[in-house]
Design brief:
The protein has a four-stranded mixed β-sheet. It has a three-stranded parallel β-sheet with strand order 9-10-12. It has a two-stranded parallel ribbon with strand order 2-3. The protein has helices at about 35-40, 120-130, 155-160, 190-205, 210-230, and strands spanning about 10-15, 15-20, 30, 45, 55, 60-65, 80-90, 90-100, 105-115, 130-140, 145, 165-170, 175. It is an alpha/beta fold and about 240 residues long. The longest helix has 21 residues, at about 210-230. The protein has five helices and 13 strands. It has two domains: about 10-100, no CATH class; about 105-230, no CATH class. It is about 25% helix and about 30% strand. Helix 4 packs antiparallel against helix 5 (about 210-230). The mean pLDDT is about 90.
């Protein structure tokens, strides 16, 4: 990356990673800010990272243009190109970088409170309002889910798949524990609720991932059991 002595401007090009401890150690080509500064270049164009970034190392300006279209949810700075202007006035050199958006693909994460959803058609309507053929939408149902709310994420995705570039719907909501006074423990509902909720409490107190996963399943067992014991029809 060392400059020669004949050119008016010295521009370099490298495909690799700017060194970040514990993050870029396994990359094939890694360089440091000190190496960029020692190059003596006016501008160093970098490739490999997918998000646009820029900075200075000594007198050298460097920049990643990133990918012209984002390819992952985490790439907030992708979808751009860089317009780089090298200027010299009154013996003073400057490098100006302007980011210009060219990508159309957008990513969005959306959390929806399950307690605010009346039913599956209402969820489809809410998601459908964001329809965009260039949007990759990652939607999650969160919070506490009412017993009566029955959502099939597969059906929701199938219904809306033509409205987005990509749609993923995940149900990470949890059925509520029983509210108010419990039925007598001598009754089937009372014994059922106490037994299941006791086991849920043990598992959630454990805190380990397998225990929490089992607790989430038991919360759904509790929800379905309450509905069945109350005489409701249940879809399994």
């Amino acid at each position: 990356m060392h400059r020669g002595g004949r050119a008016t401007w010295h521009v370099g090009l490298v495909h690799g990673s700017l060194a970040i401890p514990d993050k870029t150690d396994a990359d094939e080509v890694v360089f440091t800010r000190e190496e960029i500064e020692a190059s003596g270049l006016d501008y160093l164009a970098l490739g490999h990272w997918h998000s646009a970034q820029q900075g200075k190392a000594g007198a050298t300006t460097w920049a990643y243009a990133g990918a012209p279209e984002p390819v992952a949810v985490t790439q907030d700075g992708a979808g751009k190109v860089l317009l780089v202007e090298l200027d010299e006035r009154n013996g003073t050199r400057s490098v100006a970088i302007e980011e210009r958006t060219v990508g159309r693909t957008r990513f969005e994460k959306l959390d929806i409170d399950a307690s605010a959803i009346a039913d599956q058609p209402a969820l489809i309507t809410q998601l459908g309002a964001k329809a965009d053929p260039d949007l990759v939408l990652d939607a999650r149902l969160t919070g506490v889910r009412p017993d009566e709310l029955d959502v099939s994420v597969d059906e929701v995705e199938e219904r809306l798949k033509g409205s987005f570039l990509k749609l993923r719907v995940r149900d990470q909501s949890l059925p509520a524990l029983t509210q108010g006074s419990l039925p007598s423990p001598d009754t089937i509902p009372g014994a059922f609720i106490r037994n299941v909720e006791g086991r849920i409490a043990e598992l959630e107190a454990d805190g380990a991932e397998p225990a929490l996963s089992e607790a989430a399943e038991l919360r759904d067992v509790l929800r379905l059991g309450r509905l069945l014991l109350a005489g409701h029809e249940v879809t399994l």
